[in-house]
Amino acid sequence: MERIAKTPGVCGGNACVRDTRVPVWTLQRLRELGASDHQLLADFPSLGASDLTAVWAYVARNQTEIRRAIRRQGLNGSRAQSRKKTRGTA
Q: How many secondary structure helices (H) and strands (E) does the chain include?
């Protein structure tokens, strides 16, 4: 069984962990925000340590895809920073 899969019509076709609806980009973004593997496993009880190992390997091989997925969600930190600057609140 493939641990990471893209299924048309599921989570916008984004890469997800096996038979879950947990997108790889979500886990990567949470990691960027400081979540540890331990925290991720507690927050996503359907995932196991081997799933996270597969996720991090997928992210390493597909960095551009994951960055784009995060940007599409409007979760890019630099975009939020630039909005603050234009409002004069930075």
A: 5, 2
